[in-house]
Records
---
Amino acid sequence: MMDETPKKLVELKDLQLYFNQGKSNEVRAIDHVSFDIYEGEVFGLVGESGSGKTTIGRAILKLYEPTAGQILFDGQDVTHLKHKHLSEFRKDAQMIFQDPQASLNGRMKVRDIIAEGIDINKLAKNKAERDAKVQHLLDLVGLNKDHATRYPHEFSGGQRQRIGIARALAVDPKFIIADEPISALDVSIQAQVVNLMKELQTEHSLTYLFIAHDLSMVKYISDRIGVMHWGKLLEIGTADAVYNHPLHPYTKSLLSAIPVPDPEVESMRQHIEYDASIETDGKERQMVEINPGHFVLATPEEVSVYKNQQK
Amino acid sequence: MAANTQDFVIVGAQDSEANEHIAKPALSFWQDAWRRLKLNKLAVISLWFLAFILAFAFVSNFVMPQQQANSFNSDKVGVYKNLPPKSGLPIPGWSGQIKAPGDTTSTDVYASQNVPKSEKFILGTDNIGRSLAKRVTVGLRISLLVALVATFIDLLVGVAYGVLSGWKGGWVDNVMQRIIEILSSVPNLIIVTMLGLVLGGGVLSIILAIAMTGWLGMARQVRNMTLTLKERDYVLAAKSLGESSFKIAIKHLIPNMAGTIIVQIMMTVPTAIMFEAVLSAINLGVKPPTASLGSLISDASSMLQFYPYQVLIPSAMLVLVSLAFILLGDGLRDAFDPRASED
């Protein structure tokens, strides 16, 4: 997927998003973050709670207004889109939410929830066509025909999440942001949903931004991974590179926290503590390419340390 | 090991179609709400009671105009005044007899005042000989009118104001909330007195007073709910699909705060009815000879010891209507919430 010069679908250029800017309780949710997502790939974004992953996803969809920086989608700057262009962009980029319970309006029937995007963008000429489209989407995510007349509270967690996926697919998007789509589900259902997402990706040639805090699941689905901490992007690389040869101490710490399904190995597993003070020493850091396609946020001195580690 | 595995048969889980099936029958929103409302007996009784009262009040407009309840024959006040309720049946306490204070036996007032044999007043008469049944009917009409106007303003102004304030947020919200605070800091009584001076009292000034201040509570509640709901994922999902703010309010915000709105309305209705009653009782409300439930109670209260039925009948009406609204509101709130169902 990375071979012949791939097309950049989403480009973040020095994106910043501060809440309560200029006040004492200022929060730098996104702090000078730049990365690209290529067409047809799955980009995994990991990091602990409050690291800004979700905020990045929502900023890309223009649910939040960035403080500074640029977001390019398909070569077009979407940071200041208005009205007609904005609604066109919203047809191309969709979101799957973390909590399937909270992301479905309990007062609406599944049919109307899924058809919301169809109605807004007037994708169906009449009621029959609308029903047929909803039917097709239900099939796509493996739900039954008679589920259309049900309310969300009648479904299990996995079924609800599939309704959420169907809603996102209704407008036939190119790019889907999956904001921790599996972290509210139990393990047996996680695999079901992730496999469904993989299937849909190949069938509809989708591009995903997959946000999660579970590195093992991200490794399974992603082509490339970005690691975030405190609003900063610390490391980007192919899934294998980040997983097998982590550079940044935070990534190493995250990886060391993954449990191993072997009691003997698991009992020996040592968690690497991460000392966050290296981020707060006030030095200028930039993304530096250590290996081809493998970037890390570092000072020039740290770069040589990382390079030595690789040898 | 191999022998053991034969003893186990996997039950279910082979047929994923069957796994996804939901056995419960599919109902439309209103069918489902009605089904749940029916489970609440008190709410159903209240519903029928209110339906009957509303129909009765509406039909009575054509049968019994205001003047008929207000007029009296000044020559025959002595004959018709203060007659107790008489059903014409031998029911104790409803036979036209009343025990005067100090007496040991009850007397037939209809006989002692020489009322013609054929005439009887099922709810009695007041101190100038007007039928209490007619006066209560007219009074009920005014109370219900005030209640309906209050509900209408609550829904129209209160909900719209609250949603707008909460949804816009920032300085718009700030300004709108300060306006509410200023309005709510003016005592209602002062507003009615001022309106009374300008408009000369009556139902219109009561309705205007309610229009000016009655929606404040609703607007605040709705704003609070909007602030909570607008951060919900399904609202974000609708936004990311490109839904307009107006549609989000109609489809996502208001249906999800229906419970709060209904409860608020069911609180507003009795409050409005009571408000009218209190104002009429202190002579700021409807002007005599027009009757409202409040003015009936206040006019008769001085005679409570002698003619208790003149106070008790309109009071009972007031209590029953208010109670029915409250009980129905309770039932509706549960009925409109699909998640509240226990089955």
Note: Chain B has a mean pLDDT of 79.
---
Amino acid sequence: MNEPQTTSQLASAISSEVMIEIVDMNKWYGQFHVLKDINLTVHKGERIVICGPSGSGKSTLIRCVNALEEHQEGQITVDGILLGKNLKNLDHIRTEVGMVFQNFNLFPHLTILENLTLGPVWVRKMSKAEATETAMMYLERVKIPEQADKYPGQMSGGQQQRVAIARSLCMSPKIMLFDEPTSALDPEMIKEVLDVMVDLADTGMTMIVVTHEMGFAKTIADEVIFMDEGDIVERNKPEAFFGNPEHERTQKFLSQIL
Amino acid sequence: MAIVTKEKTAERPAPISETSVFGWMRKNLFSSAFNTLLTLFTLYIVYLTLSGVFTWGIVDATFIADNRRECYDNSLTGACWAGVIAWFDNIFYGRYPRDEIWRINFGLFLLVLWMAPLWMAKVRGKVLIGATVVGLYPFLAGYLFAGGDKGLFMQVMISAAIVAFAINMGNMLTGLFKNVGLNTFLINLAGQSKASDKTRRNVLLGMFGIAFVAVYIWQMGWTAERVGWTRWGGLFLTLVISGIGIASSLPGGILLALGRRSKLPVVRILSTGFIEVFRSVPLITVLFMATTMFPLFMPEGFVLNKLVQVIIAVVLFNACYMAEIVRAGLQAIPKGQSEGAHTIGLGYWGTMGLIVMPQALKHMIPNIVGNIIGLLKDTTLVSIIGLFDLLGMLRSISKDVPWLGLHKEPLIFGAILFFIICFSMSKYSRHLEVKLSAGEKH
């Protein structure tokens, strides 16, 4: 997988270890067939960007990976654990997979610091002092340590999203999923969030990002996936994907947004 | 267009109508001739009403008399408060033995002391204090009020309650004066400056264990004289029934609401059925059912006293109303919140207890307090099935020979009492709402 990269791209550190393996996965909402025969393998350290028109199943796909949505057919294996009805497995996988949402989903009744330490203290059984230390380290990394005692409602959208990223990182996840992290933000704030994500990519985190930010995709993605109507239509290296899209649906999509 | 404002515009004070009382009155009460007329007319009506009430209730009223005849001799047009005053003990304590009334006062005093730390910002461990109020205080108070022989279970619970109370008070003092919890204080006293959470918990448990043995041995030495429930009455009985109702209907309501939203069909159907049945029946029917039909379903020889049956009925009835309030509150919390909680690995109970419920409860406060006020007033229904609660006592004044036919004054007095209690609860709930939403502006 290690091919020479263009200079604008981050160095990639993909190992042969498989983090996520999706085999023949199908999902329906009632009668509606959302995801059709999805096959996808993600290696450790790999960074994948998923794009596509709305309603194409991008979000649903990554929500299936940490079992926020149930799939009806096929298999999803995350970090060697098969997703299924076993609740213990579910809780375990959720602690290994971090997720960042379009609407941040911070807890409005808790301060930023409490938002960050909640998981480590209650799930990882860390001591409060230790959790606070970790939390401050990650707040440092997303560049808002001075906001630790504020409530989410007192911050801007960009700051909230950075807190949400830090909250996931506090659980020291092996995989990070991003569900349109910048779609609810003002243009000025998109950059500050993307910068944090680029930093994160730099550390070798396995990432799946659903986004419409094509510049960002070019910078960090090892591979770009295009989805339409529940199918994975095209999957390619970013330079090939943007420079020379093969499928006509991809061409049409790209011509509309670029 | 070029630059419009070169310098920053200076701030000016707001117009007088926005800031002073007179400005406000001119704007809102006397803005036009017609409005001025309307204001004066309304004030006149208010004056007429209030002056009538004032004359009857205070100026012409009789406060000291031995019977109703003396009231009439004193004034024909005034209220006869003497009857209400003569019955004060009955109104507040029912027919509780007069020598034992201190037990009721002492019990209420304990409750106030027990709960006082919950309102003190410096005191630690509020969750534990709250849990002991609901979990242990009722046993201590119950024995204090009822007395009699202590079974083994009661002995254990009473000792536990006394110890919890003592630790709570110690914790309050160290919190107020040293700004630390009691256990941390003891650890510091022993010369240790830092201790892990585990040590702190162990110190707390150790304190509890030692004190428990001491108190258990001490309490074997005495018993309180038995006072049968038939002698309970007045405001005391009203507060006992509604107090238990309030303390247990909220937890019950939360469980029922979670049951109704559960993914397990059996739990969901049972909870839904239970809620719908109780909500479709008037409370008075539930009370009659509890006292007349409930014993039929029980095994022979199994006798619950009427008071217990009434309390069970009140609790179940109100838990069902609470459940619907809680359900509405839960539905108001966006799904993203529980998804956010799931992604940091919290399970169902963690998500509910730490994320969803705290937010939902805050939205529910007005409705919960509304329901609690309703519950308090509804308990007057028990006078129909023969318990002498506050209303029952007030109505028996008119059947007492010296005060025969005295209806108006006792009922007005009851209305005032209920108003004071309910209005302060509603004011407090408003205050709580403002306080809890202080940090978060959405």
Note: Chain A is about 35% helix and 25% strand.
---
Amino acid sequence: MTAAEAETTAPTAEWVRIEDLYENPYPIYRRLREESPVAWVPAVGRYLVTSFEACHRIEQDAETFSANEEGSLMKRSMGHSMLRKDDPDHQTDRAAYGPVLRPKAIKETWTAAFEKNAEKYLEEFRAKGPGADLHLGFAAPFAAENLREIMGFRNAAQEDLQRWSQTMIDGTGNYADDPEVWAKAAASSAEVDAAIDELVPVLKAEPDASLLSAVVNAGMPIEAIRANMKMTIGGGLNEPRDVLGTAVWALLSHSDQLAQVLAEPALWATAFEEAVRWVAPIGMYPRQTTREVEIGGATLPAGARLGVVLGAANRDPEQFENPEAFDINREKKPHLAFGGGAHFCAGTWVARTSVAQVALPKLFAGLPGLRLTDRPAREGGWVFRGMLELPVAWN
Amino acid sequence: MPTITYIQPDGAELTLDASPETSVMRAAVNAGVPGIVGECGGQAMCATCHVYVSPNSLEGLPEINDEEDEMLECTSAPRDPERSRLGCQISCGPRASLVVEVPAGQV
């Protein structure tokens, strides 16, 4: 038993196993929330926080619940990005992102790219023929190419971004300390560094609308540029990819709701918000207490490592009626899928626009009679959760 | 201390004491005023602290900057050309009181 465990009043949930979380975390979240919304979970080495109220409180109190976690695997995998900094250091980095990911720039610059990319990958996907996997065949390259363009990696391909993202994320989750995982993450990290180094002088001489150009010309130090770009590669690809897959799967599994959306295009945005609530692509993120604190009925010591389980908060019956159901007609209420407070997802509007305004309508218009196949769709994950395979057919 | 009054869509009113620099969003979130979410913590990034400023409170408020302006195009309830503001961008300042109406929805 560690010192942190000795001083807490939180119960221990020894029954939670990582492989069960990966398979389907929701029954586990339900039991945790009912038994104790803050519980020490030995399998993951964290106190998991599973109620909406407690997760929300943590997001609004960065002084007590620090993002700057000690021994963070993310720092090791990607460097020290703004995601693991507190204000004012966080704010310095965040300000350098400027207007690039905000609604005006999206409207004026990026929406055209999203439309072009949706058409390109839709055409490639259609050519694969019915039975193809929409997750790997459309959602992944679409999200990766959008991210490549926004970030400004003109010297890389979308396939590079997919590889960089996955290998560095695997490093972030490498609790088993597998040397092969670290080697792959380090290789990708070096590739990203090289790509950035090549572009820095080019963008200094000739700035453009990209994120890399913004941070370079805001004078962000090179180490911070590298870490923040890696965080953005890790945090900007899987999430739109996975909410896209989840939304398609959910709508194809609920034909009445799909009919509603097809009849009323304003509901694409509603379907997107419900999909991201129902299966939050980032299901858990870490925080560390800076002082002894009482939360969720338990006392935690200073230095306690927490897992803020957004995937559980978004299915808390105290916040959402019938929370386990995908229901675009539910009462509109705030969810936590984009996080909150200073670390509110910087890519929120990119995801909303690229997925809800562009990809979903184009997919359903371009693949008439879109439907699931006999080969079942599969989903997985808990820290990150989304489709693993989404075979579909069309007319 | 100056006060901020929140008028709900059903007409219910709540008045809070707030220091001159405390934003309409922060005062509401701290006090749990219904209908003000403030999810991004005041970065003008989420458009969930939208309010309609009462006509008598409009004078003397700071100008709407570009960031607030683009977010006001993203609100759930319709934007009022004169009265819509983000609660995170306005506070009492030198005035004794500020009155805002809470819209019917933020998400």
Note: Residues 24-31 of chain B form the longest helix (8 residues).
---
Amino acid sequence: MSEVTLENKEKFEELQKEIDQWKGKEGPLMPVLHKAQEIFGCLSLDVQKYISKELDIPVSDIYGVATFYSQFTLKPKGKYKIGVCMGTACYVKGSQAILNELAKELDMKVGDTTDDGLFTLEATRCLGACGLAPIIMINDDVYGRLKPEDIKEIVAKYKEG
Amino acid sequence: MELYRSHVLVCGGTGCHSSGSADIIGRFNSEIKAHGIEKEVQVVQTGCFGLCEVGPIVIVYPEGAFYSRIKADDVPEIVSEHLVKGRVVKHLLYSHSIEEDESIKALDEVPFYQKQKRIALRNCGVIDPENIDEYIAFDGYKALGKVLTEMTPEEVIETIKVSGLRGRGGAGFPTGLKWEFTYKAKGDKKYVACNADEGDPGAFMDRSILEGDPHAVIEAMTIAGYTVGADQGYIYVRAEYPIAVKRLTIAIAQARQYGLLGKNILGTDFSFDLELRLGAGAFVCGEETALMASVEGGRGEPRPRPPFPAVKGLFGKPTLLNNVETYANIPQIILNGPEWLQSIGTEKSKGTKVFALGGKINNTGLVEVPMGTTLREIIYEVGGGIPGGKKFKAAQTGGPSGGCIPTEHLDTPIDYDSLTAIGSMMGSGGLVVMDEDNCMVDIARFFLEFTVEESCGKCPPCRIGTKRMLDLLNKIAEGKGEEGDIEKLEELGQGIKIASLCGLGQSAPNPVLSTIRYFRDEYEEHIRDKKCRAGVCQALLQYFILEDKCRSCGLCAKACPVNSISGERKQPYVINQETCIKCGACMERCPFDAIIKR
């Protein structure tokens, strides 16, 4: 078990603080996993084992929870997470074409992360901004009322950093 | 409290926020300061106004000037003209809010708002959701005070029962009964929970209430806690709703500070506190037993009922679980009396329902109408009809659990029972409009894809059955459908409905069954004629070059990635249907609109 090393010591300390807050309370696992993912970017096996020991929950249970929910990830995501809303309102207004265009422009499959670690492309659930359909989110930025031809310019902005 | 001569209300709902309302607020503040009128004009960030289509929205009172699609660069003009000189900036106003004589219409006379009745949304777009004082100024926490000092739990239950309120989250179970069951359940510890895991695609009512009026939910849950005998509540909210989470967090902290949550509320011996729990992207957690499993920290898998949550819920204790919109009705019922709600709606469905209008409709947004309003009124009067002069094809209600309603049922008065009778359901209130360009087989496939992905996998009818249905739909959409496929879909669908463990599986076949019921001819066309009349199913399409329009420029041939287009100068070009991959590149490239798909 590789666990805590020098480089990630601070991160584990931060996680420990969160865990301490939840000890003795009911149902601590979900909030702790949210925090752990925020700190580490993903829920690696080491992180799961650490939480297992601290909360006294079998690691198999934690793995079960971490893989059940779509927002938890075991592998790190790209620097820019592109989410294409596939809610009904966006879908009937052509979000599939937007998603295809993004996959083409970035030369990647939906659900993957580019080799340079820059982009992760995902089809997401309804983001609730149906008035702007079809929309995409890149990290916290929202782009709405899109047409496939808008994609090139938007992606270029992030490629340049 | 300061007195201001003008108020600038800027919508801070997710829709307007996404299109830059935070910048607009910042710009208003700096411009107002630059003109030295910051003591006269107050800028308020409110919840959703509802008319998301024309956002970002700014309303200036006392005139009630409704500015639409505002950009930060429009702000200096509004400040210098309207706020300083008192001249409304007409060219920035929402066009439907101007009378023929160029005066401004009152907001409730604008067609979008005319037929609406706002109970659950009454404070959305009116108050600053991050300021508890504004909620209190609009009778906030008055119902809690009345309940704690004047009413017994039995009286509260009786009030809710008489009002006829039914759960707004889906199935429409009578709310008063639910409260009574939890009240009567034996237990040393009880919980109150709020289902804010609004997962239906195209539905954002609950999000808007949480963002626009979070205290209404907190007040109602506290009333519920007093009534059923609980001292702890949980709000389970989607992690995908960051603004709602932020405003709820602020609201809970403010309520604690004011002694409206915590120990000895309003000086009584009743104590109650609330905690937020975030979902993590699992649609099934909207199902009540799955939601509770998730709050407890497990996989969000449903379990059989009974025992119902009222008997054995969170952490094995009796639990009252209602959805956001249901709670938002409670304080108003307490204050106005049960007869008031009784007077609104239809015989078996009382009050109002919030719908999220989306898809092919002019006024995309959030509307709240009395139960019994017809679909036609919602779509054509409130919603402003279908854009681009297209023909209405169907309205989808109830999300992945609901169905598609065709033209012949447009005049059905909307309530729980009428929607179920025509093969759909109220669901949480998503209402997505589809026009002639939408293929019903494709829409059914879209929803099935959703349920296949979101099925938790616990029970086989849902896990395997929905996958098999999706396989059949894919086959039909790809032009490989055979006689008998429709009947197989129907048989599978009925089986899944009967045999699934929870509401997700029991309702998953609805989108398929309802589209077969009303659009069987479209399915048959896909299977027999290999034709998709809406032009959506790619495999069934063919691209053609119209001879009379083709100018033989050759651009299409250059654009074709698989060299399937050939031609000579002064001769119309031709597409080789054998090798064409139907990518549509030629059609996009053609400057003369000479290429069509059919």
Note: Residues 510-529 of chain B form the longest helix (20 residues).
